Structures are given as structure tokens and as C-alpha cells.
Amino acid sequence: MLFALFYYLLALVVFLLLLVPIIYKSFQTKYKESLPARFFLKNNPPFNSNSIHFHSCSLGEVRALKPIIKKLKTEINISTTTNTGMSEAKKLTKNVRFLPYEIFLPFWVEKQKVVVVLEAELWFMLFFIAKLKGSKTILLNARISDRSYKSYKRFSFFYKQIFKYIDKVFAQSDEDAIRLKELGAKNIEVIGNIKVFQNIEVTTKYKKPDKKVITIASSHDREELLLLKSIKNIEDYHVIIVPRHPERFDTVSKELDENGYYHVKFSHDNTFCNDITLVDTMGELINIYAITDIVLLGGSFVPNIGGHNPLEPAFFNTKIISGNYYFNQKALFQVVENIEICSDLETLNQLIDNAHPATYNKELDLNPLLKELLQ
Hints:
CATH architecture of the largest domain: 3-Layer(aba) Sandwich
Oligomer: single chain
Helix content: 25-40%
Distance between the termini: 28 Å
Number of strands: 16
Radius of gyration: 22 Å
CATH topology of the largest domain: Rossmann fold
Shape: globular
Number of helices: 19
Strand order of the largest sheet: 3-2-1-4-5-6-7
CATH class of the largest domain: Alpha Beta
Mean pLDDT: 92
Number of domains: 2
């Protein structure tokens, strides 16, 4: 209890120190809904009590909840911290909120049947208050990447406090389970990455170009040009570029123009009629994977990002080439066969020619999780 009081006071001090920047950013389009909701509780009332409350951050994590929620066949609540997560959550339930900053949680969190938190969203006050009010608490899809392991160990005293209030942990792998136990986690069960369970559905069917299609998927800063410059005989392919973040659409377009890569924006006519198409709309990546031959999976060709989900392109049996910075996706990479790892861009064209279609086992057991949720 003393730790909780100290932590709350520390969080309050941080809030006061950052108050002016938070207010300033609240007027920016990207944050005008999320920041007032999270830091000032604007249009953000508590959930009704005695339901199942899922908390997840990103679009991919929220999307992975869909098959679980479908099997539960009960009303659920979802909280998130990102705009993309919010948009996806609204497709699953009407009960969606931005998770408030921690100093508000003692007054905002109501007793639930179960509070389920995904992956690394280890908010101390969320678990502490949930348990204090009598909710069962579960950490789902838990993982500790190679890159972040040292950091977790350095602050192990803090994580040991958090795990005191987590009843059950579902880990992605045996290695994750060992690391989580070192940090104080108890009652750990390995079920794999729940993103394997997700339903992958094409929402719009597009006509495939006559040429072979290379998709540069979920790309980050510098990756588009690095990869385009590495593809030999680029005129033999139709290249589709899908940046990870929408705020980069205009930047990527400008970079392509400045480097002599004539392209068309997908938003202009929703077709793939040019040698290079820049997809400057959201929610199209799965539809594009369906017409793709080779995926260059972004977030892995430059340091610090950690890669992205290979399951979606593998679902369509595309060839998948990743850079060697995929440390956040190791559990998923282990269940996908035939991913090629490009550690040197000089070998990229050889991999494009010789890679085999990727596959993975789409049937895994959700029963251990469902049992915990419905008890």
C-alpha cells in the first residue's frame, strides 16, 4: 500500500510537470480526442461494472481480440490509448474508452468480472485498483523482447510490485515465461501469440496488376527509399508502398518525387495502374496483401522499431522478406515458415527471386484463455 501511495504521488508530480505540453498537444488534430479524454476525463465516463474489460494499445492488438470476443458471446468493454486502437475497438463493441492517465484510475475504474491487459501495457494503478475493487486480473499475450529484457531487469523491483496484482499470465513463448517469472509473475501459462487466432478478412477485392507485385508494408522513416534503391529492374514489378503511420503519407510522397520515383496516390482512384502506388489511406493493407506476390515487411530494415506482424501476409501465402531488426515479433516469426531474413540489402534481389511462399498454422487452442474469462 505504501508503494502504491508513493507511485500515485510520483505520477501526480509527472502530470503537473507535463500539464502545459499536454494542453498544447490537445489542440492538435491527432490528439484532440485522446488527450482530453485521458488527461481530463472529457467525454470519458467509467465503464459499467461486472463485465469483461480488455485493455490494449495498438490496432493490431485490438484486432486480435475479435475471435476471442466472438467466442465469449457476452458484452465486453475495451479501453485503449491510441486513435487507431479506438477506431478498431469501435468495430467490436459500443463500450469503448480511452484509458485515463493513472492518477484518475482510482476514481474511474469500476469492479469488473475480469480485467484483461494485453502485452506490455503494464500500468501499475490499473492492476492495483482493479484488484482493490475485486476484479480478476489477467495479462494476455505477455512478452519480453531481447531488446527490452535488460531494461525490465534493471527495474525489476517495480515490475515485482505490478505482478503482485496480476492473477494469471498468458505468455507468448517459453522464453517469455522464464523472463516473466524472473520479474515476479506467477501462474504463467504459455499459449502462443493470440494474433495467430485473429480473423483475416478481405474487405475490398482489387484487380491484381499484370506485373508481379512487391508491397513495401508498414514502412517507417528511411525504409521506403532504402528498399526502392535496392530493387534491381524495378520496372519489372508493380511496387505498392504502405507507410505505417498516416502522418507520413505526404512526407513519403515528397521523398519519392525528390528521388525521381514517379508514383500515384491510391486515394486518387483506388486502382493500381502505375509502376509505383503510394497507399495514402488507412485500412487497406490486408486487401493489398491479397494481390501481392512479395512483401517487404517494414519496421525491420532500420533499428529501433522491432518489425511487424508477419501473419497477415502469410495468410495469403505471399513471399515475405524481413530485415533483421524484428526483435518485437520473434514469437510470431517462429510460427511462420519460409520468412526470409535480409541482413544485407545487397542480397535483397536474390531473396526476391528465390523466396518460397510463407505459411503458418492457423488453428490454435483458445480454451485455456476462455476458461479463465468465463469462470
